[in-house]
Amino acid sequence: MKNESLIQHFNTNDSIEYFEGIDLTHLSTMRLKASGDLAIVKTKQGLRELVAKLVDENRSYRLIGWGANQLLPRTSKDLYIKLDFEYEEESFTMDNSKTYFPASISIQKLISLALKNNIKGWELMTGIPASLGGAIFMNAGTKLGEISSLVESVEILKENGEIRIETIGVNSFSYRKNNFLKNGEIIIGATLKHVEHCEKVSNIIKEYLEYRKNSQPLRSKNCGCVFKNPENNSIGKIIDELGLKGMSSKNFKISEVHANFIEHIGNGDLEELHFFIEEIKAQVLDKIGLMIECEVQYSYN
Questions:
Q1: What is the pTM of this model?
Q2: How far is CA 289 from the centre of its chain?
């Protein structure tokens, strides 16, 4: 049933594009069949007004960035919010030791800046398929390190419309998660550190991109790594050694290239994928007694 007050508000706000009941399949890199309502927000003020309206109408919402670490259900009552804040790449300078970026900037653009300026440390973001906000939310990382090491502070919009600044400390992050964002809060930007140049950065980035090309199924429909690595071990290696690489359901299979990736090979949805993920977890538990956790974010009822 349409909520006319919400529709009218969204469609008269220049900083918000509202779409009702549309195909959302393209919003996740796994390309699961999904549909629902979407709001693309272009300014902080627009986001503040939107959240206030949603809270007033008791409407739940969910942020979505590049959709690389999110699995979408076929249908949802949540309003999906996608940020599209402006950022002028030309404004970046190494004169300062830190720079503020909007949450919607892509990690790819940050890597572009790292290449142009040989920014030491930023190479660890190489290949993360996410927006900055999404990467911070899950403390995304690669073999080279975690994004938490680059973050000085995070700008957050609270449900009541207030903005707070989270200064990052030693306990702000843990493996693949942040420890500071509360329910209903939205990351709207962050200040990243860039303290020095390093002439080797460009080569490190290029070498790591080549490594990813040869070791990950980059051309398939997938959500990146599905499971968290156990301490001092690789879950991809474990799944491979258990002989599960290539295991499949109707529309999904464990990648032959990297066993911590699940490839979408048909026209599946979250329901089927959920049961496939649970079967993998059950097989690992049965064979070696190890309970594994998902790194990818999703909820299934």
A1: 0.91
A2: 30
**Contact at 8 Å (CB) between 154 and 188?**
no
Helix axes 107-117, 201-215, angle to 10 degrees: 140
pLDDT tens for each residue of 173-184: 999 999 999 999
CA distances from 268 to 22, 36, 74, 246 (A): 18, 17, 10, 17
Q: How much of the chain exceeds pLDDT 70, in percent?
A: 95
In whole angstroms, give the CA distance from residue 184 to residue 156.
10
Please report which helix (H) or strand (E) contains residue 45, including its range: helix 44-56
Torsion sign, CA atoms 134, 139, 142, 146 = positive
Quote the DSSP letter at residue 160.
Answer: T
Name which of 123, 128, 127, 124 is nearest 138 in CA terms: 128
Q: Which region, left, alpha or beta, applies to residue 197 given φ > 0 means left and ψ of -120 to 50 means alpha?
A: beta
Closest by Cα among 71, 132, 131, 70 to 99: 132
Structural domains in the chain plus CATH codes = 4-83 (3.30.43.10), 89-201 (3.30.465.10), 217-288 (3.90.78.10)
Please say if the pLDDT value at position 95 is more than 80: yes
Question: What residues does 190 pair with on adjacent strands?
Answer: 101, 154
What is the Cα–Cα distance from 34 to 11, expressed in whole angstroms? 23
